Amino acid sequence: MQSSLENFVKQKKEVKGFLSKKLSFNTRKPLLGIILDKELSPAIEDTLRKILEATAHVDVQVVVLADTNLGAFSVPHTVILPYSRNNRKIVLQAADIALGFGFSDVEEMLLNGTIPVSPSRTEVEDYNPNHETGNAFIYKGNDSWSIFAALVRALETFKFPYDWKNIVRQGLETVLVK
Question: Per residue in 139-149, pLDDT tens?
Answer without folding.
Answer: 998 899 999 99
